[in-house]
Design brief:
- By secondary structure, this protein is of the alpha/beta class.
- It folds into 2 domains: 9-156, Rossmann fold, CATH 3.40.50; 162-259, N-(1-d-carboxylethyl)-l-norvaline Dehydrogenase, domain 2.
- The chain is built from 9 helices and 7 strands, in the order βαββαβββαβαααααα.
- A 7-stranded mixed sheet has the order 2-1-3-4-5-6-7, sandwiched between helices.
- The termini are far apart.
């Protein structure tokens, strides 16, 4: 797929959720090589806009994982003759969930970023993961990722995508859920949530910085790293007053630390 002189590759985005809207907003102001053709809701009764002016060269499906195949089928039936590449953004799923269509390449294209709300600026500095059997698709998506603001590309085989995506959930979603535990403990300790979060900002940011800068065995601090059983038991006794899931999470972290040699690593 080659961009003709002075002409952008046209990209259609289907899906008006946070990621889909972020992509559409980023492409609405054309990059060097790409321009938004259209932005349609996944529940649209008609995708006939995809055939206007020959349609887009690239079609991005950004909807719920279990809807991707069906939405793609409907969109492909209306896509114009220009279409050369169809992609989806479900990080755990291979490109072959997309319908096989003559002369149309397929790919998974996933940004390692969290979108609490639509924001085109959130692509800056992120890593994009690409999975496709087609070298030409990889070349195009490398360029698209870079022009969206990416600084790094991961090329992964389809069979490792579920494992890769589970890592993203650990890093992003579980961090937010850990915040739920902090909110509950803060409430039990009669500390206003706003004050707790203000107090936690420096330590959480430093903990993340430490984790990203070196192996976790070298940067873990506190009673787990010291192997301080007495302090741990005081924590567990206090946490028993809260919903059982809170102490369950604490105990699971202890098991994880012991299993991978972090317990008592600083004694």
């Amino acid at each position: 797929m080659q961009k003709t002189r002075n002409r952008h590759l046209q990209v259609a985005v289907i899906g008006k959720g946070r990621l889909g809207t972020s992509l559409a907003r980023a492409l609405a102001k054309p990059t060097k090589s790409f321009r938004l053709h259209s932005h349609l809701p996944a529940r649209s009764s008609s995708f006939k806009k995809l055939s206007e002016k020959g349609g887009p060269e690239i079609l991005i499906i950004v909807t719920r994982d279990n809807q991707i195949t069906e939405v793609a089928k409907k969109a492909l039936r209306k896509s114009g003759a220009n279409l050369r590449l169809i992609i989806h953004c479900a990080g755990s799923m291979p490109p072959d969930i997309l319908p096989l269509t003559p002369n149309v390449m397929r790919a998974t294209f996933h940004p390692i970023q969290t979108f609490a709300k639509p924001d085109a600026k959130l692509f800056k500095g992120v890593t994009f993961t690409i999975s496709t059997p087609t070298r030409a698709a990889t070349t195009v998506l490398n360029k698209l990722a870079k022009e969206l603001g990416s600084t790094q590309i991961l090329e992964l085989a389809p069979n490792v995508l579920p494992l890769y995506h589970s890592m993203i959930v650990y890093g992003a979603n579980f961090t937010i859920l850990l915040g739920t535990a902090l909110e509950e403990i803060s409430k039990a300790a009669s500390i206003p949530e706003a004050k707790m979060k203000s107090a936690f900002k420096p330590i959480l940011l430093q903990a993340v910085t430490n984790m990203l800068s070196d192996n976790t065995r070298k940067v873990l601090t506190g009673p787990i790293a010291r192997g301080d059983s007495e302090t741990i038991e005081r924590h567990r006794k206090a946490l028993k007053k809260l919903p059982p899931e809170i102490i369950g999470l604490y105990d699971d972290f202890l098991k994880l630390a012991k299993r991978f040699g972090l317990w008592g690593s600083k004694t």
